[in-house]
TrEMBL record, chain A:
The organism of origin for this protein: Fibrisoma limi BUZ 3
Lineage, opening ranks: Bacteria, Pseudomonadati, Bacteroidota, Cytophagia, Cytophagales
EC number(s) from the headed UniProt entry: 3.6.3.28
Name of the gene: phnC
Keywords, ordered alphabetically: ATP-binding, Cell membrane, Hydrolase, Membrane, Nucleotide-binding, Translocase, Transport
PROSITE patterns: ABC_TRANSPORTER_1, ABC_TRANSPORTER_2
Keyword Disulfide bond attributed: no
Name assigned to this protein: Phosphonate transport system ATP-binding protein
GO MF annotations, alphabetized: ABC-type phosphonate transporter activity; ATP binding; ATP hydrolysis activity
Domain of life, per lineage: Bacteria
From TrEMBL, chain B:
UniProt-listed PROSITE patterns: ABC_TM1
Organism the protein comes from: Fibrisoma limi BUZ 3
PANTHER family, per the entry: ABC TRANSPORT SYSTEM PERMEASE PROTEIN P69 (PTHR30043:SF1), PHOSPHONATES TRANSPORT SYSTEM PERMEASE PROTEIN (PTHR30043)
Entry protein name: Putative phosphonates transport system permease protein phnE
Family in the record: Belongs to the binding-protein-dependent transport system permease family.
Entries under Gene3D superfamilies matching the protein: MetI-like (1.10.3720.10)
Keyword entries, A-Z: Cell membrane, Membrane, Transmembrane, Transmembrane helix, Transport
Cellular component, GO annotation: plasma membrane
N-terminal signal peptide: none
Subcellular location: Cell membrane
InterPro entries named in the record: MetI-like, MetI-like_sf, PhnE/PtxC
One family name in Pfam for this protein: BPD_transp_1
Stretches that traverse the bilayer: 20-36, 78-104, 125-154, 209-228
Membrane topology (UniProt): Multi-pass membrane protein
Amino acid sequence: MIEVRQITKSTKEGVPILKGISFTITKGEFVGILGPSGAGKTLTMRCLNGLTRPTSGEVLFTDHQNNLVNLTHAKGRELRKARRQIGVIFQGFNLVKRLSAIDNVMIGQLGRINLLRSLFYGFTDDEAMRALAVLEHLKIAHLAQRPVGSLSGGEQQRVAIARAIYQQPSVMLADEPIANLDPTNARKIMQILKPLAEQMPIIGVFHQPDLVMEFCTRIIALKDGVVVRDGDNKMTRSELIDLYGAELSEIEASQRILQPV
Amino acid sequence: MKQNVSWTYSSYRRKQTLRNWTVMLATFFCAYWAGISCKVDLDALRAGIPKGIEFISYLFPPDWTAFADMAMPALETILLAFLATVLGAFLSLFFGLAASSNIAPRWLRNLSRFLLATERSLPEIVILLLLISALGLGPFPGVIAMAFGCIGMLGRLFSDAIEEINPATLESIESVGARKLQVIAYGVLPQVLPSLLSNTIFRFEVNIRLSVLLGAVGAGGIGFQLYYSFQTLQYQRATTAILITLLLVFLSERLSNSIRKKLSQEAKL
């Protein structure tokens, strides 16, 4: 469970980007964060696992063992311990391109295993089998030994999801996970994420209102650094126009062009 | 069409021409001055040409019987360069990491970069002469001098390669709760490996040439054979040493080029 309490974030020059954002994500939820460019969506996500520290406010994370961690102040060991339980997937996949798919998946457990063993890639066959099983589940087991840099975008995002699943997190964050993918692959990734959300809540930033309405269970809309809507997964067209303004026509145009028939 | 501009092409061209001629004349003047202080003597040069030709005739034919004597020193030169490169590359890796802004804190990065730059400005021969006074003649100070001499260049190239890694990749490894050493083992090393190897192999090529030179100053190997043959007026023997040197340099260059070509294809991934 993640609880965000009134977080704000300003740039070095003091320009406020996030102006007091609050929400709570609980079990079984698949939350889609929508909003126009510059609304603070990605920054909010970065605050959720401590990659960025908010200027004020708190991010509270409850882990598997019901320990409460304040991610706003956590440092060193405490932060690493919390991060083990937060899976993250990114828009640019951000995998290690020259490592094989299976090694990238193994990275998911770095926070848990013995440091010395990990430095020499000393994974056991059991661990590898578990990683392979996750790849199998995502239907990319045949690519296990290929360097990730040689895979397509859709395949890379699956490896990234496999890494996050293998990490056995209690929550998954997804920062524009389908923005770099073609519509067919984007839909497939959503189809993978949807059932996963029943095991661990997923919070994702998306640019496709239609996919979010179809797959997510809840929509949080951000605009100019504040939550302007937090509720079910249905948004009317006029709500979307209010949210996106002129950007909506661009989003719709790109979807019309790319929509698979 | 008349346009409202405050300059004409001819005045612009005049300025450019004036600048070019100034630079050219200044260079010639400096060179002339340098010639005077170096005591350039064209008459001596004219008289020296036949002497030079005569000297070249002393060099031939090469003394093929010396070939066998020089096999071991040649091998020594190769081993010297190899050991120095391996040792130097290993040390450079640590300096390279310490000199990278995405791995090390700013103070350490700046300090390491400063040390690397200092080392680069120190010619290997100076290091060798210092070491010889401490360790005596022989291949050992040669290895140390060359290994040390690698660090400035390789450390810098390594850290440049490391700084080019996409920060998002490193961040994504941190996001699973990994420690810094794990980020280095999984995010940094695999990504820069081809570039590290390629630079190291290039340095091996440089070290082969260098070990010939350092050999002449006391580090042993083929360089010492060359120096010794000249000193004892065994010019035909010296020719053999020169030919072997050429062969070594040529082969190491070919080897390095072909390996680096493969690595650069690998690095494109």
